[in-house]
Amino acid sequence: MFKPSFPLALTAVLLAGCQSATIDPDSPPKLTQAQEKEQAVQRGVYEKLISSVLAREGDLANTQGRDGSFNLMLTLDDKNRIIGCGTQPNKKVDARVYPYNRKLALDLRSICWTAVFPELPSSLIDPKSKTARVVAPILVYPLVGLSPETRARRDAALQDKAQNDFLFKQLLAPMPIDSIGVATLMMMTDSTGQVRECAASLDPHAMRPSEFRHDDGLLAGLVQRCKQLDLSAMPGFVPNTQGMSSAFYRVEYTPWKAGLKPAQSQSCSTTGSQASTQGC
């Protein structure tokens, strides 16, 4: 299980002071005390929101039940799109309690692309590079001592995640996506799992409602692909051998989840005593 809270590092923090008396016309203006205070408040709110997302999404991505620690490194552009992702060891935690786990980092790096993160305030984006780097320390408790009820709930959640991943891959990933939202699907399947009827709708995502766009082309393509879908290959799907059955699903979609991943995504390492926030 994930540790519920942890500090984040943001590389887009604007540094006060000058290196020389020369004025750089391209350098950002120095923040006032009030602006620095507001930026700190915005950073604190963002950290709490993204921590809850990482805890939920990371637990669902940890299908192997691993434990340990690492830093997840997100790079966002000025439109709040994920454009880079990497991992590195977390040198700030006690390695006897949370040892660096490379396999855990590889397993969970996928949440960079599958999760919907809260919008990063524009004041935390570097005005020169028009990007921001978020370094999120991830600490995972061993999955031992879980009650049977808790383990059953986790297993059910993992199956739901696997089914949503299957539906996204089959239905939404092949199509162009330029907005953030949730696709709601109502399907009627026959005794073999073949979809016979399908209805769908697109709705805003609660985390990023302003970036939703009603796309008639996407909706039409989604319904068309849905009607041709065979659910017999979906994890955990059990058809009704006696006849028709109905199923209801909600699938998140984003431009980066659809496969728009840059070539520079990579794993990172650090040799210093503190987790690096300045690139891989």
UniProtKB/TrEMBL annotation:
Keywords linked to the UniProt accession: Signal
Signal peptide: 1-23
Descriptive protein name: Lipoprotein
Organism: Pseudomonas fragi
